[in-house]
Amino acid sequence: MDKLNKSKRARYQRLNTQLKGIFKPTDIMMSRLATIEAILHHKIKYYAWTGIYLLVDGELLVHSYQGPVACQRLAKDKGVCWAAINQNKTLVIPDVNDFPGHIACNSATNSEIVVPLKNQEGHIIGVFDVDSFELNSFDEIDAEELEKIINMAFEL
Ligand code: SME
User: Which are the contacts of 152, defined by CB distance < 8 A and separation ≥ 6?
Assistant: First the structure.
């Protein structure tokens, strides 16, 4: 593992520990997710938009987020968020311009990661979405560490 990857993982692990402490008095999943957004958005430089879309009556509607104003509703089965839901897995998109149907809420966005949000029964309730203005911001380390952090919101 090279130095950069090591420090990236170490940074996520420090934030994971910090969040665990902050979560102690809260057992509300949405409060925890909002706190994850706030901490990661302000601590990780390439997080340019950080937030949640929730599945409501078969539609993806924006919920809490940090960053510029986002699309309020995502057209069904189009874009990265719907692809992550339909494929039931985290998607890392190095260049959103190469992703057919990508929905650009902000044209300055160049890479993206989307993690499906699964409740304790394993049902997908929405997605956790992060955009970066740079290309290639996200990789397997972001995927693994972000999944671990998000899972803490559901460990109530
Ligand atoms: N790019 C997403 C839309 C949401 S924004 O990135 C905030 C997509 O293609 O689904």
Answer: 16, 19, 20, 23, 32, 36
Ligand 1 pocket check for 78: Cβ under 6 Å:
no
Index of the ligand 1 atom closest to the CA of residue 109? 6
Domain 3-155: state its class: alpha beta
The strands making up 91-93's β-sheet, listed across from edge to edge, are 73-74, 59-66, 49-56, 124-132, 111-118, 91-93
Amino acid at 140: E
Domains in the chain: boundaries: 3-155
How many whole angstroms from 138 Cα to the centroid of ligand 1? Answer: 15
Q: Is 114 exposed, middle or buried (0-12, 13-18, 19+ CB in 10 A)?
A: buried
pLDDT in tens, 66-114: 999 999 999 999 999 999 999 999 999 999 999 999 999 999 999 999 9
pLDDT tens for 42-69 read: 999 999 999 999 999 999 999 999 999 9
Task: Pick the atom of ligand 1 nearest to 102's CA.
Answer: 9
> What is the chain's mean pLDDT, rounded?
96
Distance from CA of residue 124 to its chain's centroid? 14
Q: Which protein residue's CA is at the shortest distance from atom 1 of ligand 1? A: 103
